Amino acid sequence: MTSSTDLPLSGLKVAEFTHMVMGPTCGLILADMGADVVKIEPLKGDNTRRLIGSGSGYFPMYNRNKRSICLDLKSAEGKQAALKLVERADVLIENFRPGAMDKLGFGYEAMSQLNPRLIYCSEKGFLGGPYEHRTALDEVAQMMGGLAYMTGPPGRPLRAGASVIDVQGGMFGAMGVLAALEQRHRTGRGQKVVSSLYENTVFLVGQHMAQYAVTGKPAAPMPARISAWAIYEVFDTGDDEQVFVGVVSDTQWRLFCEAFELAEFGADESLAANGDRVRQRERIIPVIKETFRGYTKAELMAKLEKTGLPFAPITKPEDLFDDPHLNAGDGLVEITVPNGEFAGAKAKLPALPLEMADQRFGLHHDVPREGQHSAQVLEELGYSKAQIASMLEAGQVAGQ
User: Fold this and answer.
1) Which of 51, 169, 217, 265 is deepest in the core (most CB within 10 A)?
2) In terms of residue numbers, what domain contains 266?
C-alpha cells in the first residue's frame, strides 16, 4: 500500500516533536498507516540525523513517510507556527525529558486547552511513580528492568542487540494513540497517553517473574537457563556454519527421530515425553551434535524444512538485504539515505511487520531532508509566500 489516500489512517494529522528512536517509532507506525505526520525539527535539523556509529541508522529507519519542518520554537513566529500545527492536529507525539515541553509552552495542559480533541502522546522513561522524573535511555531500562540480566551470562548483564525497548515503547505509544482515537469517537475529547521504557521492559520479563511465582525459583539468565525443551539451541554443521534447531513437541520429536534415522531414540519410551527428554539432555545432545556435523548448513536446513521442524540460520543484519522472503513479500521498503557518507544512495529497510487486506505498508513519502517541507506546511497553515520568505530570512524557520 503506497497511496496514502487508501491507507487506514488517511486524514489523520500528527504533529511530531521527537528525536532518537522511541518517539519517531510511534510516528513511523502512524505514518506508514497513512497519517500525515509533520516532524517539527530545530533549525539545524534533528541531532539524530548526525549521530555516528550505532546511532547512524536511527534517522533513516524511523522517519520515512513523514514531512519535515524546521522551526525556532523560542521565537514568537516559530512558536506560533507550531501552535497552528497542533491546533489542527489529531495527535501530538513527544519524547523529550520530563518538563521540556512545558518549558517550551507545549505541555499537555496548554495543548489540551488549545485543542480539546488532541491525543497527546508522551514517550517517557517511566510511568507515574517515584522514578517518573528520571531521565532514561533504552539501556538504562534494560539494566534496571531485568532484561540485561536475563540476556547476558551470569555476572555479565548484556543489553539486547537492538533498541528493543525504544521500539517497543513506540509501539505501545501508537497502540495507546489508536485506543484514544477510538474513545474520542464516543466522547469527542482527546486525552494524554504515556508510554514508557521501564514499564515495557518489565512487561517483557514478566514471563520470568511468573516463572518465579509458579516455581519459587529465580529464572536463570538465558545463557544458563534450563530450557523447556531438550533440543532448543544452536548447532555446528560440517562446513563450520551454525543452525538453530528446536524440537518443541512430542509429535515433532517423533518426526525428528524418523528424519535423522535416530531409531534408538525414537523407540525409547523413556524419551517419548518432553519432560523426560529435558531430564536426559546430557544423553541426547552429544548424539544430536555429532549427527548434525554430518551435514552442511544447506543440507541440514533443506532436511529440516522438508520435515517441517523449527530451524533458523544464524543471520547478520546485513544479510537481510538479500533475503528472498523479505524481497518477495514487500518486507523491505526502498528509501533514500538522507544524511552521512552515503547520502542520496538507495537502501531497503524493514517495512511494518503487518499485513492488512493481504497487503503490506510501503513508502508514500521518502525520508525527509531537514526542513524539506517547511514552506509547504506553512502554506497549508495559511501563511503567504511573502510571510514565509520573511520568516526564512529572520531565521524563524529553515527549509530547502
Assistant:
1) 169
2) 227-313
* Total domain count, the chain: 2
Say how far apart CA 166 and CA 346 lie, in whole Å: 25
Cell of 48: 539524530
Tens-digit pLDDT profile for residues 75-111: 999 999 999 999 999 999 999 999 999 999 999 999 9
What is the rounded CA–CA span in Å between residue 400 and residue 267? 73
Q: Which ranges of 99-204 would DSSP assign to H, the alpha helix?
A: 100-104, 108-114, 138-144, 147-151, 164-187, 197-204
Q: Is the pLDDT of residue 2 over 60?
A: no
**Are 357 and 256 contained in the same domain?**
no
Residue 206: all three cell numbers together: 514478566
pLDDT of residue 6: 87
Residue 392 pLDDT greater than 90, yes or no: yes
Strands 13-17 and 36-41 come out as parallel
> 46 and 129: one domain?
yes
Q: Tell me, what's the pLDDT at 225?
A: 85
Among 249, 281, 313, the domain-final residue is 313
As to burial, measured by CB atoms within 10 angstroms (0-12 exposed, 13-18 middle, 19+ buried), residue 96 is buried
The pLDDT assigned to 339 comes to 84
- In terms of domains, do 259 and 148 share one? no
Over its C-alpha atoms, the chain yields an Rg (Å, rounded) of: 25
CB 7 within 8 A of CB 85: no
Q: Which of 280, 313, 346 is the last residue of a domain?
A: 313
Half-sphere exposure of 89 (CA within 13 A, CB side): 28
pLDDT tens, 277-313? 999 999 999 999 999 999 999 999 999 999 999 999 9
The 3-state DSSP class for residue 332 equals: strand
Whether 165 and 254 share a structural domain: no
In whole angstroms, give the CA distance from residue 353 to residue 23: 18
Q: Is residue 323 part of a domain?
A: no
Both 58 and 30 in one domain: the answer is yes
Confidence check: pLDDT of 3 > 70: no
Mean pLDDT of 366-385: 97
